[in-house]
Amino acid sequence: MFSNVFRSAALAVLVAGSIAAADDPFVGKWKYNQDKSKVTGQRVKIDELAPNKYKINSGSFPEVVVADGTDQPMEFGGTASLTKTGDNSWKLVSKKDGRVLSESTWTLSPDGKSLTVHTTGTRLDGSTFENEGVVGRVTGNSGLAGTWETKAEKEMSTPADWEIQPYEGGISLVYPSNKGRLDLKFDGKDYSEVGPNAPVGVLTSGKRLKPDTIQLTEKHQGKVIDTVEYKVSADGKTLTATVHNTGQQKPVVAVYDRQ
C-alpha cells in the first residue's frame, strides 16, 4: 500500500526448454481478484527526523519528505507533497511530470492504534481508482510516527485489466490503463518498463522455473526491490503472484483471473 503511494506495481535462461507463444499459459488478459488475494502483514516505519520532516520506510528505499505542501522529488521519479491537515492527519499528493497520479489522506484513529490511508486517482486512460488500507500500530505511542502493519486493504473501484503477450522467447507485461509495458527475455539481462508513469531507474530480470512458473526480480541502483513468483493454475484460469518485498518478513499474494 505505502510503496504504491510513492511508485504510482532472476538471472537464468529457460530451464524447461522453449514454449511456443500459443502454448504459453501466461499469455492472456488478467484482472485482479481482491477476495482471493492476501495483502496484509506488510510493515511501514515512520520516523520524525525533525519538526515536519519524516522518513517513511516500507522496503529497500526509504523516502524522506517534509510536510510543507511542496512538491519534492522521489526515488523512483515524480514528486510527492505532504501536508498536515490536522494534529493526526496528512494529505499526500503524488505527481509525475506535473500530472497528479494519486491523492491520499492518512487519518489516525482517536485511540491512536490504527491508521487509515484512503487513496484516489485517475489512470491515463481516464478511468479512476479508489482504495483504502488500514494499518495497526506495532510501535510508538502517539501521532503518526512509529511502526505500522497492514491489517486490511480494499479496492473500491474496478481493477484495471493488464495483459501478458509473447515477446521474442520471453514475455511482455502490458498495462493499457497507464500506457505502460515491460518487454523482457529470459536471458539474464535487465529490462526497463516504458511509458509515461514508468518508475525511473527500475530494472527487471526474469527466469522461467517451470512451464507454469516464472520469477521476476526488480532492482534499483543494484539493490533488489522485490522478487515476484508468478504461477498459472492447472486449469489456466488463475494467475497467482507471490511478492517478496525487500525489508518485509511476509509476502504479498495477489491473485488474478483470466479474462
Q: Could you characterize what this model shows?
A:
The chain is mostly beta strands and 259 residues long. 2% of the residues lie in helices and 57% in strands. The chain has one helix spanning 2-7, and strands spanning 28-38, 43-50, 53-57, 63-66, 72-73, 79-86, 89-96, 99-108, 114-122, 128-139, 146-155, 162-167, 170-175, 180-184, 191-192, 202-210, 213-220, 223-232, 238-245, 252-258. A ten-stranded antiparallel beta sheet has the order 14-13-12-1-20-19-18-17-16-15, with no helix packed on it. It has a ten-stranded antiparallel beta sheet with strand order 4-3-2-11-10-9-8-7-6-5. Strand 3 (53-57) and strand 4 form a beta hairpin. It is globular and about 55 Å long. The two termini are 25 Å apart.
Characterize the biggest β-sheet. Answer: 10 strands, antiparallel
The helix/strand series, from N terminus to C terminus, equals: HEEEEEEEEEEEEEEEEEEEE
Distance between the termini: 25 Å
List the uncertain runs: 1-20
Question: Strand arrangement, largest sheet?
Answer: 14-13-12-1-20-19-18-17-16-15
Q: Class by helix and strand content?
A: mainly beta
Number of extended strands: 20
Helical residues, percent: under 10%
Query: Strand fraction band?
Result: over 45%
The multimeric state of the shown protein is single chain
Q: What spatial form do the alpha-carbon principal axes imply?
A: globular
How many alpha or pi helices? 1
- Please, what is the average pLDDT? 91
